[in-house]
Write a structure and sequence with these properties.
mainly alpha; hpI Integrase, Chain A; 3 domains; globular; single chain
């Protein structure tokens, strides 16, 4: 924005434009939501990824495809930003337990000038172990994601990720925009919200704000809570054992919803 203002001031000084044409304020850009994967697409990517690794014939190709495949799984199951993945070191990874004694993986990530702890299921630990098993850089201060020679990767396997997505026929999302590494983060958020994770805890986990989550993923809550949104409408069946509770309704046969009071009952479930 500072550069833009400097250009405007230069143009005014040179009389290319008048002072009255100076732009004031901050331009409002339309936010474009990146396409996440559906559950079916994620499973297809998982399956295709395994066969993609097995299809490699050269030693270097096997190495890079193995790391890339596990990188994708790690990103989809942690919600890390790409810069945070670049900064991740082996010392940033530890194991822990939740309040019920279940195993989990704890990652200390850094990016955008901030740091935080995020938690992940044991499967992420397995993916990281696969990467470490073939890495030449495994000291505590070494980067997790590297090239075959052990140097920190600058591209986060961008070309290989693109190749894998193309192989799986998932390169472009419904919007027609090519998917990038950031789509893994959006997939994570979409899946977590779909499972009913509280938006506040998800914002803490992902290092963002509740407002940002609601802005980008409000559509997920609408689908997740369709029973509340559609309560009382025609062709929407309320469970016979719990008609007083709109949170427990489900879709049924056309015309099955009762007319009258059921339709007038106000549903105000939290989103």
């Amino acid at each position: 924005m500072m550069i833009f203002r400097a250009i405007m001031e230069f143009a005014i000084k040179k009389r290319y434009i008048t002072a009255s044409q100076r732009f004031e304020g901050r331009p409002q850009f339309k936010t474009m939501r990146r396409d996440a994967f559906t559950i079916e697409e994620y499973r297809a990517l998982h399956t295709r990824g395994r066969s993609w690794v097995k299809a490699a014939t050269k030693i270097s190709s096997i190495w890079y495809r193995t790391v890339t495949y596990n990188f994708v799984l790690i990103m989809c199951n942690t919600g890390m930003r790409p810069p945070e993945a670049k900064n991740l070191r082996w010392r940033d990874i530890s194991k822990g337990k939740d309040k019920d004694g279940r195993d989990l993986v704890i990652l200390s990530v850094r990016g955008k000038g901030k740091s935080r702890h995020l938690v992940a299921p044991p499967s992420v630990g397995e993916y990281l172990d696969r990467v470490k098993a073939i890495s030449k850089s495994t000291a505590p201060g070494d980067p997790v994601f590297t090239t075959k020679t052990g140097k920190a990767t600058k591209s986060l396997y961008m070309d290989l990720v693109s190749q894998l997505l193309t192989e799986a026929k998932l390169r472009e999302g419904p919007s027609g925009i090519p998917r990038s590494t950031y789509c893994f983060r959006h997939t994570y958020a979409t899946f977590r919200l779909g499972e009913g994770v509280d938006v506040y805890f998800l914002a803490q986990q992902m290092g963002t704000s509740v407002e940002m989550i609601e802005q980008h993923y409000g559509h997920v809550n609408t689908v997740k809570h369709a029973d509340r949104v559609l309560h009382g409408m025609g062709s929407w069946e309320v469970l016979p054992d719990d008609r007083a509770n709109p949170e427990n309704s489900k879709s049924g046969k056309a015309g099955a919803a009762r007319p009258g009071p059921e339709r007038r009952r106000n549903s105000k479930g939290k989103q």
